[in-house]
Amino acid sequence: MDETMMEAMAKRLDCLERENLRLDRQVTRGKWVGRAILLGALVVAVGGAQFPLEHPRKLVREEFVLQDGAGVTRAVLKAENNGDAGLHFYDERGKDRIGLAVRRDGFAGLFFRDQDGDCRLAMGIRADGNSDIGFYDKKTRDRLRLGVTPEGMATQNFYDQDGKDRLGMTVKPDGAALFGFYDQDSMSRLGLDAQPDGKVGLVIFGKDKKARFSFVIPPNGTPSLQIYGKDGRPLFEAPARRNRPGFPEVSWSGS
Fold this sequence. Notes:
255 residues; alpha+beta; Outer Surface Protein A, domain 3; 19% helix
């Protein structure tokens, strides 16, 4: 191979080397540009996730349903067409166990149900301002109820297995405390009371709702006892004032 041919080959190799170097630089620049674009997209995406207030969004629906992995409904948030709104939670069998409700009539309440879906405990505030808590048996009958009126009167009532009111306790806003026993027809038969002025008393009623016996200790400490007939007139009083014929006279000093 002569010297001229060798020089020509050397020039061609030199050109090829320079061309490869230029291509390598372009590829490298392309990689960095691609990486920069990808990094910029990630920054925008993360920035949007980190600062959602810059892009306010809201999702408006009338009903939301939450299901577990088995497809069983576990929670429902729903606004009814009649104006009621509620949130319900269900167990793994689909039984309604807890409910929150706000009704269009102003009632707001919380309900708890047992494994069979029967309501056993409920609490709420009614539109008139009365608030109460109710406990129920398996037949969803009242057994115990606690309440507070807007005026500040506190009440507690116990019910029998038929849902009849049998025992009630009340504390009035003025401080008077009342205790009442009721028969199977929810009629008052015996009452105890303590007044703010210190007066305490016991009254027993007949089936006709009329008082038949009363015992009172007033603030001055002098007790009094009265027995009434079916007509409501006193048959006997102590200290004696106007006992009817045939009843003994009784004097009472109060000491």
